[in-house]
From TrEMBL:
<dbReference type="GO" id="GO:0046872">
    <property type="term" value="F:metal ion binding"/>
</dbReference>
<dbReference type="GO" id="GO:0019239">
    <property type="term" value="F:deaminase activity"/>
</dbReference>
<dbReference type="GO" id="GO:0016814">
    <property type="term" value="F:hydrolase activity, acting on carbon-nitrogen (but not peptide) bonds, in cyclic amidines"/>
</dbReference>
<dbReference type="InterPro" id="IPR011059">
    <property type="entry name" value="Metal-dep_hydrolase_composite"/>
</dbReference>
<protein>
    <submittedName>
        <fullName>Hydrolase</fullName>
    </submittedName>
</protein>
<feature type="domain" description="Amidohydrolase-related">
    <location>
        <begin position="57"/>
        <end position="351"/>
    </location>
</feature>
<dbReference type="Pfam" id="PF01979">
    <property type="entry name" value="Amidohydro_1"/>
</dbReference>
<keyword id="KW-0378">Hydrolase</keyword>
<dbReference type="InterPro" id="IPR050287">
    <property type="entry name" value="MTA/SAH_deaminase"/>
</dbReference>
<keyword id="KW-0479">Metal-binding</keyword>
<dbReference type="InterPro" id="IPR032466">
    <property type="entry name" value="Metal_Hydrolase"/>
</dbReference>
<dbReference type="InterPro" id="IPR006680">
    <property type="entry name" value="Amidohydro-rel"/>
</dbReference>
<keyword id="KW-0862">Zinc</keyword>
Length: 356
């Protein structure tokens, strides 16, 4: 059973295990770590003391690819291929969702993530101003992107541009350091080259990140080659979307050259093993190629409709097992690397919390 401690004031976690040593962790009234070590208790006058004996402290988990409000769609339209799942079930249902639906769905997602140790997440959806309300109230950290989809239509592209600009302005006006904005071009198959280029330029202008799906299925790759004469990562690069602030979700069908390109551009690749297995994308992210290339590989759950869970502890296990099975290597992605994907790698992907 999970124990969730909610504290007002300064907190001392006494005698907890960190990296094999027994230490104290002091947390000040602002919720910031004031000290870790045997002398940490001297840094604060603790209002609350938590007994950490027989417990291990690890960094908070970071979920680098979610559609949080899809908690409302958990278990809906199972056992379908991705293209049909999106076009026949998910998108038609989402067309009927309201801002209040997104607020409550995001709030439920925040609760679920808190219960499994997640402290920050990278989200793409719509009605994101209401998602920001939920995040603000629940106390997590989040990077929020409006899912930009123009389907090659100029009129729709203009509407998506306005929605993206409005979200970024809204988030910046909130002046909440826990909530940041990103640009969210959905994918190469739902966003035109003009739309992708606008997203890249706007992200650079606003000094914010890009959140995108990349090479989730073989069909995405073959369609991109047929339409543009190049593979998805190369296409995104030519549109300016591969940057050190880009989080690319899935990356299942990248070839070795694309992995090297992501490494060269400093892209953060978000592994979503449970979603990839549920939707049977038929290939696991080439973690070994991405790691060798220098790309930062982090971890995500995707939305609840394509996973059924937002539990990153569970996702770490799936990641380690899937990589071993898919690439026939018993030594690939050991436990320590899986934990790093869900903690330090995720934190690098979201970037530092802005100062006051």
């Amino acid at each position: 059973m999970n124990d969730i401690f909610t504290a007002r004031g300064s907190v001392l976690i006494a005698g907890v295990t960190v990296n094999g040593s027994t230490v104290d962790i002091a947390i000040d009234e602002e919720g910031m770590i004031a000290g870790i070590g045997k002398d940490a208790r001297k840094t604060i006058d603790a209002d609350i003391i938590i007994d950490g004996s027989d417990r291990v402290a690890i960094p908070g988990l970071v979920n680098t690819h979610t559609h949080a409000a899809m908690t409302l769609l958990r278990g809906y339209a199972d056992d379908m291929p991705l293209a049909e799942w999106l076009s026949e079930k998910i998108w038609p249902l989402e067309a009927h969702l309201s801002g209040d639906d997104v607020y409550w769905g995001t709030k439920l997602a925040c609760l679920e993530m808190i219960k499994s140790g997640t402290v920050a997440f990278n989200d793409m959806y719509f009605f994101m101003e209401r998602a920001a309300d939920a995040v603000d109230e629940m106390g997590l950290r989040a990077t929020l992107a409006y899912g930009f989809i123009d389907l090659g239509m100029e009129e729709k592209r203009e509407a998506e541009i306005k929605a993206t600009e409005a979200l970024v302005a809204h988030v910046k006006a909130r002046k909440n350091p826990r909530i940041q904005a990103a640009v969210g071009p959905h994918s190469v198959y739902t966003v035109s080259p003009e739309g992708l280029s606008w997203c890249a330029n706007f992200a650079e202008e606003q000094e914010i990140g890009i959140h995108i799906h990349l090479s989730e299925t073989e069909k995405e790759v073959t369609d991109c080659v047929a339409e543009f004469g190049k593979r998805p990562a190369v296409h995104l690069d030519e549109c300016g979307c591969l940057t050190p602030r880009t989080v690319a979700a899935h990356c299942c069908w990248l070839d070795e050259a694309e992995c090297r390109l992501l490494g060269k551009r400093g892209v953060h690749a978000s592994h979503n093993p449970a979603s990839n297995m549920k939707l049977a994308v038929n290939r696991a992210m080439p973690y070994h190629w991405l790691k060798t290339s220098g790309a930062n590989v982090c971890l995500g759950t995707d939305g609840c409709a394509s996973n059924n869970s937002l539990d990153l502890m569970e996702e770490m296990k799936f990641a380690a097992l899937l990589q071993k099975f898919a690439w026939n290597s018993q030594t690939l992605l050991p436990a320590g690397e899986a934990v790093a994907m869900a903690t330090s790698a995720g934190a690098r992907a979201l970037g530092p919390v802005p100062g006051p």
